[in-house]
Amino acid sequence: MDTGKIVIDGLSGTSGAGAETDRALHHPEIGNNLLPYNVVDHRHTYEIEQELGLLSKNEVSVHFTTTYVPITRGILDICHCFPKTDITREELLDLYKDFYHGESFIKIIDTPKEQGASWQYMPYPWVAAVSGTNFCHIGLDVDEKRGRIVVFSVLDSIGKGGAHAAVQNMNLMFGLEESLGLKRYGLHPY
Fold this sequence. Notes:
seven-stranded mixed beta sheet; 190 residues; 23% strand; Dihydrodipicolinate Reductase, domain 2; 24% helix; alpha/beta
């Protein structure tokens, strides 16, 4: 992987801004609108670089752009990576399944890519599918022509990003089953 060239586009629902009142994020303002924010030097860039650096044992440079979108809760991150060797979507899916094996709240979307309008969305995760849950869904694709991997991840910024993560950590601290009280399905059928 070219660790000097990782591009992440983060799309966040307005709850990601916190509970403070902000006119720009009020529904009549954000509805039918997209609002880029902290485009340069976002506070999470350093955390992402640190964790990817530990994982890869290399120095990592991340180009991270964030945008508020007109939904209340949820995050969709689209990550563009450039592998140094060829890899297929199936090989990448196997790598991710092995890495996340045994993780209760990670679902790798491995729906085969097929022809037809309705199938063009199915290999990728939907924010609505994780709304109200502690789950993170990950989808993957490989652009073999351009030598690019695209990784999609979705989670509920209020659930997984806050309250549910706190319950999960509490369960671990008290020696309880990690998923206790957290195994509910999303508000949208997937």
